Each structure stands twice: as C-alpha cells, then as structure tokens.
Backbone:
C-alpha cells in the first residue's frame, strides 16, 4: 500500500457519511486474539515474535477477503509513517512504539486493520463511518471466523478468549462509537453524560483513545466489561445509549440556536475567520476551531463548507499528516506556520465568505 | 486508608508517573469528583488495573511463590506489570486472578462467541483444526472424494476424543 495516496483523503472514519453522521463520527470494533501455542507478545523473545509474525502474516495473506488486505511491515516504516498510521487510527500507539517484528494488514478503504504482535498477537479492527455498530460487528465477526479456521486461538470455555491483560479476557471485544459533542461541551452538560455512562460501565475517552484528552470535542464511548456478557449484549448496551446522547446533543444544539443564536454565530464566524487568516496555528487550536466550524456547518450557520471537507481538515492538520502533505519534516514552529498556511489555502478553496 | 483532603475513607487511588517521578493520590469519591480526576485527568486504564490488582489480590505466601511452568512468569511479576505471560496463566494463577476478574467484570465466566474449531485442551484438537481446514479447502475446490475421506477421518477423531 502506498501511504502517500492516503494523505489526500480522510479515510473511513472521517468520511462523514452513514447514519447520524452529524454527531456520530464513526463506529469501531476491536477483537483481541492470541495464538494458543505461544507466550503472549510481552513474554516472547525476538525469535518467537518473528515466528508469530511470519505465521500470522502468511495466514492473513491467505484470507478470503475482497479486496485483499495489504500487509505493512511496521519496523520498516519511518517514525513519521508510523505516526501517520496512528493518526488515521489504523494502528495503535502501542504498536507504533513497540519493539521487534510486528505488522498491520489493511483493507484498501481502511475499514479493516489487523495488527500483529500488539499487546495481543492479533488485534482485529473494523471501522465504519457513522453509527453502524451492527454492520461493523458483522464484518469483524466474519474476518474472525475466517482467521479461526487457520489459526488455533487461545480460548477456554471458562474465560473465553485469553488475553495478555485480564481486562480484555472473555469476548476480547472493545466496541466504541466516536461522537462529536460540541454543544454539550458549550452548555457544560458533558460531565453529566460522563457520570451517567460510568454508572453503566461504559468508558469515555478522547479522540486518540487511552490517555488522550478530548480535543475537538470528540469523545469515544466504549464498553469496559468483556467477561460474562456476550458480544450481542455488549453491543446492545452501547447501541441503546448512543441515541440518548445524540438526543441530548441535539437538544443542546437547539437550545443554543434558540437562546444564544448571536453568540453562537459569532463563535462560528470567529473560528472560520481565524482559520482563514492566522499565520501560526497549533494542532490543539486547530481542533478547537474546526469543532466550532463543524457545529456551524451542521446548524447551517456556515454555508459554503461541507462536513467531509471539515473532517478532512481535522485529519490533515495532524502533525504527521501535515508533514507528509508538505513533503518535509518540520519542527514545532515550522509546523504551526505550515499548518496555518495549509488551512488558509484549503479554506479559501472552499469559498471566501463565511456568511 | 483515609482521603488526603478530608477524613472519609479513600476509594480512589491514583498513581501517576511523570518524568519517572511517582506520585500517589488517595481520595474519597467526592474529593475525586471535585478535583475532576475522572474527567480532566484522563483515566489511565493500566493504573486502574494496578490498583485493582493491589486491592483484590492480597497474595498469600503460596500465591506469591507461584511461577508459571510454561512461560516462567511469577505471580508477583504479573502483579507488578498487569500483563500475563501466556494463556496457561489463567489456570496457573486462577486463585489470584478470580477475584480480580470479578472485581473488574462483575462476572466469572465467559458468555458469547467461541471458536468453532474448539482448540487445544488435548493435543488432538490441533490436528482436528488442521483437518477441518483441509476439509473446507477440499469442499471449496470441489474435491469431493478427498472431502468425504477427511469428513470421515474427522468424525473418527471426534468420537475418539
């Protein structure tokens, strides 16, 4: 796979289509699997890791999936390219930063990614644009079925799929839905939502998962429990709660438009104005301003930009994406200048007049 | 243990490692919420796991001495790192893991998907899996005689196991 071709698009999860895609960015399911005959990755030496990697690479290559997956040898990638794949959510930070033989098999449309020698031998991931957990489950279940015909998974009747970390054991499944919740943040209602979710054992994280803060008002909601509940039950619990959050967000948006339309319009106009004219722009500020722009587009306060275009800017202004688009390695300051330049050009293409 | 800020019992224990410096916090639920630990300071899953392991797994001497004969990991190493060494550890460390699994998942037994080529409690199952793969390939390539032979072989092995 040629990574350069990916830089110009936004990938599956920011495609901006699918059910409820004004609020639900993407749905993602991940399965953790291990080979019965080997120690877990962290306990395997370089030789064993190489053996696991070679075997899984070979089995993955034979999978009957259309179109076929592309296998990328992660140690061969530059640090920039690894970061690039992390930004696209195709590999985890853990896989990017690990040692030894490891890789990832990707579907051309970036909907499927199979990580080899992550914390577990295999981490299967399927991503869909919009609110589409069931479709994502059907896809990943099928890939998992195909793989289990070719490899002997570590599984016990009692504990289910055996994983390196006991917090993943059982189904090994983490299902998550990424939401854009700018109005709940503005209305200071977001913490209430978090508390409610924590009570029913769902986790809330930022855009890039564990340990990343919620920039751009993006939040991922996922299950914590993996043992004692079937995949169907877990998916059902998430599927049931998401429409309520969507509803809260829509109500908060409605209230904003009704009660403080001018302040909101001002916020949105300032955001697009700054993005169109600033000469230095950090990643963090970009995310915050784009979040306001995205809200403005969804509320028809901004007419000349489309959601897919805004989504594209979210990803293309990430550090590794920006450097690949510029074709140069840039330090922090250079990056901020290049980011501002890039945003000015892109938003001028999109139309000069915010109103 | 008491909360650092008031005298209620501490239920939230956080260990942060910043620039190799370790910082511990022990708070009650209210103070933790007031400090918005759960919101602004990202929940660090592995830190939480560590806390759970520490709380729920008071290692008896026996448990503390336990070493997995397959991968060589000691129970105490798992306790420190939060990662197991191999699939057998779930059996070997059963006594220590049970309470931990229950406190995290509120359940003790798996429900849900299982591999249809149920693997490897007995060594023969690996062979069975291999035979089933070959059977499927034979069916796919319409080699029906070979498929029938494999099917019978699989039935035989299944009956024997």
Residues:
């Amino acid at each position: 796979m040629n990574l350069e071709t990916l830089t110009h698009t936004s990938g599956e999860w920011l495609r901006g289509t699918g059910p409820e895609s004004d609020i639900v960015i993407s749905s993602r399911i991940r399965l953790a699997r291990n080979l019965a005959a080997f120690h877990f990755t962290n306990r395997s030496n370089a030789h064993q890791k190489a053996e696991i990697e070679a075997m899984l690479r070979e089995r993955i290559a034979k999978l009957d999936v259309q179109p076929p997956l592309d296998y990328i040898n992660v140690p061969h990638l530059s640090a920039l390219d690894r970061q690039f794949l992390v930004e696209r959510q195709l590999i985890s930070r853990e896989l990017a930063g690990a040692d030894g033989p490891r890789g990832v098999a990707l579907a051309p449309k970036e909907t499927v990614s199979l990580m080899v020698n992550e914390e577990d031998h295999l981490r299967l991931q399927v991503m869909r644009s919009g609110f589409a957990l069931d479709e994502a489950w059907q896809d990943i279940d099928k890939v998992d079925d195909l793989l289990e015909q070719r490899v002997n998974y570590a599984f016990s009747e009692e504990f289910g799929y055996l994983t390196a970390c006991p917090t993943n054991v059982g189904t090994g499944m983490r299902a998550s839905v990424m939401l854009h919740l700018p109005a709940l943040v503005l209305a200071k209602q977001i913490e209430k939502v978090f508390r409610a979710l924590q009570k029913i054992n769902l986790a809330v994280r930022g855009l890039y998962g564990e340990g990343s803060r919620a920039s751009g008002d993006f939040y991922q909601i996922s299950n914590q429990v993996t043992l004692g509940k079937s995949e169907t039950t877990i998916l059902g619990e998430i599927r049931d709660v998401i429409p309520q959050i969507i509803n809260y967000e829509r109500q908060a948006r409605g209230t904003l438009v009704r009660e403080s339309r001018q302040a909101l319009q001002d916020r949105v106009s300032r955001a697009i104005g700054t993005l169109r004219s600033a000469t230095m722009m950090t990643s963090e500020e970009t995310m915050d301003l784009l979040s306001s722009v995205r809200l403005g587009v969804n509320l028809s306060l901004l007419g000349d930009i489309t959601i897919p275009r805004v989504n594209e800017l979210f990803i293309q202004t990430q550090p590794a994406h920006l450097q690949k688009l510029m074709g140069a390695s840039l330090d922090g300051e250079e990056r901020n200048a290049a980011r501002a330049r890039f945003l000015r050009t892109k938003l001028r293409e999109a139309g000069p007049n915010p109103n | 243990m008491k909360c650092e800020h008031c005298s209620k019992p501490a239920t939230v224990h956080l260990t942060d490692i910043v620039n190799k410096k370790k910082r511990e916090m022990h708070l009650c639920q209210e103070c933790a919420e007031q400090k918005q630990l759960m919101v602004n300071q990202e929940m660090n899953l592995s830190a939480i796991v560590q806390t759970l392991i520490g709380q729920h797994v008071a290692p008896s001497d026996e448990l503390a001495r336990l070493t997995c004969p397959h991968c060589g990991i000691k129970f105490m190493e798992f306790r420190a790192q939060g990662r197991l060494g191999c699939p057998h550890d779930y059996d070997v460390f059963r006594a220590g893991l049970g309470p931990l699994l229950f406190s995290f998942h509120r359940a003790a037994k798996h429900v849900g998907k299982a591999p249809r080529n149920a693997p490897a409690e007995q060594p023969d199952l690996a062979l069975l899996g291999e035979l089933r793969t070959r059977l499927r390939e034979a069916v796919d390539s319409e080699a029906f005689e070979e498929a029938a032979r494999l099917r019978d072989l699989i039935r035989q092995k299944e009956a024997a196991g």
About this structure: Chain B has eight helices and two strands. Confidence is low (pLDDT under 50) at residues 38-42, 119-123 of chain B.
